[in-house]
């Protein structure tokens, strides 16, 4: 390890284990970073706008299938 990185005084210290808080399971730790709906209701608004646009312009079955494929994440 590079000794110029500023961690040489703590790099060989043992990992801290709390006496107060139990170890968090991996699946709960990962849940902290799971995606969330930051804009509540935004998905519904997008879907309504999409439905309106589709109704206004009748798409052929091929165009509709392509449109649905393009919207998939």
Order of helices and strands: HHH
Largest sheet: none
Content-based structural category:
mainly alpha
Total beta strands: 0
Mean pLDDT: 82
User: Which percent range describes the beta-strand content?
Assistant: under 5%
Distance between the termini: 40 Å
Tally the helices: 3
Sequence stretches where pLDDT stays below 50 over 5 or more residues: none
Estimate percent helicity: 40-55%
Radius of gyration: 25 Å
- What characteristic shape results from the CA principal axes? elongated
Describe this structure in words.
- The protein is elongated and about 70 Å long.
- The protein has a domain at 37-71.
- With 73 residues, the chain is an all-alpha fold.
- The chain has 3 helices and no strands.
Ordered list of secondary-structure elements with their pairings:
Blueprint: H1 26-31, H2 42-56, H3 61-71
What is this entry, summarized?
By secondary structure, this protein is an all-alpha fold.
Which key phrases capture this entry?
73 residues, elongated, mainly alpha, 44% helix, 3 helices
């Amino acid at each position: 390890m590079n000794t110029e990185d500023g961690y040489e005084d703590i790099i060989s210290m043992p990992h801290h284990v709390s006496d107060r808080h139990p170890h968090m399971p991996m699946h709960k730790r990962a849940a902290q970073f799971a995606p969330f709906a930051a804009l509540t209701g935004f998905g519904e608004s997008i879907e309504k706008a999409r439905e309106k646009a589709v109704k206004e312009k009748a798409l052929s079955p091929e165009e509709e299938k392509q449109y649905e494929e393009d919207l998939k994440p």
